[in-house]
Design goal:
The protein is α/β, with parallel strands linked by helices. The protein has 3 domains: about 5-15 and about 225-455, 7-stranded beta/alpha barrel; about 70-205, no CATH class; about 465-560. The protein has helices at about 30-50, 60-80, 90-95, 105-110, 120, 125-140, 150-165, 165-170, 175-180, 190-215, 230-235, 255-275, 290-300, 310-320, 350-360, 365-380, 410-420, 430-435, 465-485, 490-505, 510, 520-540, and strands at about 5-15, 55-60, 220, 305-310, 335-340, 345-350, 390-395, 425, 440-445. Helix 1 packs parallel to helix 17 (about 410-420), helix 7 (about 150-165) runs parallel beside helix 10 and helix 20 (about 490-505) packs antiparallel against helix 22 (about 520-540). The longest helix has 27 residues, at about 190-215. It is globular and about 75 Å long. The model has no long low-confidence stretch (mean pLDDT about 95).
């Protein structure tokens, strides 16, 4: 409201998972989509539903929405015709015959069911902890594995899913409460009842978020379809704007990158509209990666706002000062526009956002929220003469909560309770801010290309392993272009190849390559990247080159939070 003098605060939660499905076999190679659905996406909706005065922006990657749809289709087919489900973990949950104890399939499934936060999930539930301890013993004694009871794996499968269940579901759903009370000796009927809960929660997501959007409590936004780093698709050299000395791949450009970026925006809009029945006003360009050319594409595709990290605006302000364009000091807590482009750009307060991602998980919820709100109150007081001030907290809406007690239940409940009716701060959305602005956003001549991580693209390019991955992609794109032009592919084959290329262009593969990431996760994502590239070559009818099968990256590091999240600033390098 124009008459409301409280300082606007926007929480923008980004929901994103890459494509884990092999589109030739139909298999989901990893279960993270449906697990984050039942743990995080349902909880994030439930907390907003519990606090009608709270508001937020929820941004979805369209490739995630498509996978949610695919899971629902596969579960429905299994129910009605017994068709196999493509996710081996979910299929095992309801399988009449589990792998024989001690067999490779048994041990593989056992390990998969232990991929959960040891402190916050496994150790929280005594039966799950006992099963985990038994698994550790079985690993060291292959000679006794054949004597394991088949019930062990059945119970482990149930506790894996119970551990990943959203806290708001755990506290209210009678099936979940009953299974937890039972604790062990789960029957096939129990396991199928648990699948019903999984399916129910996944099916609830689109209607719940649609309703939150219709009431104005939530603004729904999107990222480009498969979450590519758009500035790099357009121009690999844009990485040098923030890092002039960065080492780039041997190829000068990603061929046809601008057209591919447009495709990701257009395809993303189609998926978004199908899922939510509305058009997005804003676009969190993947990883907040922006450039002047990216803003131009967002404008051409009808987006009215975007956002990035505060290092990007600091770099852009420093350039404007060096050029003598501005002389006054400008803070980050305000909207900006750049050059002749019309989208309004907001900037993440990295300090506030990183407190949620990396600090508050070990605090008492009331203390954490009090500290966060105190910082916001200080910012609001410093900006009280600025009629265009806005505080932006932007972070991933899924990976932080497994490090909090009970999936962040107490923190999120307290956060929305305190801010829903605060005396000097008001929760709002970017849509409302661009609709009603008390003054024009500050206009700067040029946005220095970068992302929310360090204000650079170093997370996705510059490292030898990442550069090699880009070279493999560029090589595949050359073959793709030839195949699309030579007239041998049908329209259906072209459409399949186009989507498969889009999967290969996603940001996640490049994120995980590098020695600083955990070896096991690097191995997983290298396997995924190779699989997607091999499937692309299959789609265009060209043999995959031998270079595609040479090792890319080994990993071996131990980053905070397992590497799934990053701080906005490099350690010791605060703007």
């Amino acid at each position: 409201m124009a008459s409301d003098t409280r300082t606007p605060v926007v929480f923008c939660w980004h929901m994103h998972q890459p494509d884990y499905q092999d589109h030739i076999t139909g298999e989901f190679l990893f279960p993270w989509v449906y697990l984050h659905c039942i743990k995080d996406y349902v909880d994030m909706a439930a907390h907003l539903e519990a606090h009608p005065g709270a508001r937020a922006v929820i941004n979805f990657a369209p490739i995630l929405l498509e996978q949610i749809e695919e899971y629902q289709v596969q579960i429905a087919r299994w129910r009605h015709s017994g068709s196999a489900m493509g996710d081996p973990v979910l299929a095992a949950l309801v399988s009449e015959a589990l792998p024989e104890p001690g067999s490779p399939g048994f041990l593989e499934l056992m390990e998969k069911c232990l991929r959960a936060n040891a402190h916050r999930i496994i150790k929280r539930f005594a039966p799950y902890l006992r099963l985990s301890e038994l698994a550790g013993f079985y690993r060291t004694r292959p000679d006794i594995q054949r004597y394991i009871s088949p019930q062990f794996l059945a119970d482990l499968l149930v506790w894996y899913h119970l551990g990943w269940m959203g806290e708001t579901v755990r506290r209210t759903h009678p099936v979940i409460r009953s299974l937890q009370e039972k604790g062990h000796q789960f029957s096939l009927e129990d396991r199928r009842a648990l699948l019903d809960v999984v399916a129910e929660q996944m099916a609830s997501l689109a209607p719940r978020y649609r309703h939150l959007a219709q009431t104005g409590q939530v603004e729904l936004a999107m990222s480009p379809w498969a979450h590519p780093i758009v500035p790099l698709l357009i121009d690999l050299g844009s990485a040098r704007e923030a890092m002039p000395d960065i080492s780039l791949p041997g190829t000068n450009q990603y061929p046809g990158g601008t057209e591919r970026a447009v495709w990701h925006l257009e395809e993303g809009r189609k998926v978004f509209h199908r899922f939510f029945g509305t058009e997005p006003v804003g676009c969190w360009a993947s990883e907040g990666a922006l450039s002047q050319a990216t803003l131009s594409l967002l404008q051409q595709n009808g987006f009215r706002w975007s956002a990035s990290g505060d290092s990007v605006i600091h770099n852009s302000l420093n350039l404007a000062k060096a050029q003598g364009v501005i002389k006054k000091e400008l803070g980050i807590h305000r909207p900006f526009r750049f050059g002749e482009e019309s989208p309004t750009v907001f900037f993440r307060d990295d300090g506030l956002s990183d407190l949620i991602g990396f600090t508050y998980a070990d605090w008492h919820a009331k203390d954490a929220v009090a500290d966060l709100v105190h910082h916001m109150e200080n910012i609001a007081a410093a900006c009280q003469r600025d009629g265009n001030a806005v505080i932006s907290v932007i972070l991933d809406g899924e990976n932080a909560w497994e490090y909090y007690p009970e999936n962040g239940f107490y923190f999120l409940d307290e956060l929305y309770r305190v801010l829903a009716d605060h005396a000097s701060l008001r929760l709002t959305t970017y849509h409302d801010l661009v609709q009603v602005q008390d003054s024009e956003p500050e206009r700067l001549p040029h946005l220095v290309a970068g992302s929310w991580i360090y204000g650079t693209f170093s997370t996705w390019i510059g490292d030898p392993d990442k550069n090699r991955a880009w070279e493999l992609l560029c090589e595949a794109k050359h073959h793709y272009d030839k195949a699309m032009d030579n007239g041998t592919l049908s329209s259906e084959q072209k459409a399949r190849a186009c989507r498969q290329l889009g999967l290969c262009e996603g940001s996640d593969w490049f994120w995980w390559f590098g020695d600083y990431n955990p070896a096991a996760v690097v191995r997983d994502f290298e396997h995924l990247y190779r699989r997607h590239l091999v499937n692309l070559y299959d789609a265009i009818g060209y043999p995959a080159p031998s270079s595609l099968f040479q090792p890319l990256s080994q990993g071996g590091g131990e980053p905070a939070r397992g590497g799934a999240m990053r701080p906005g600033h490099e350690p010791g390098n605060q703007p």
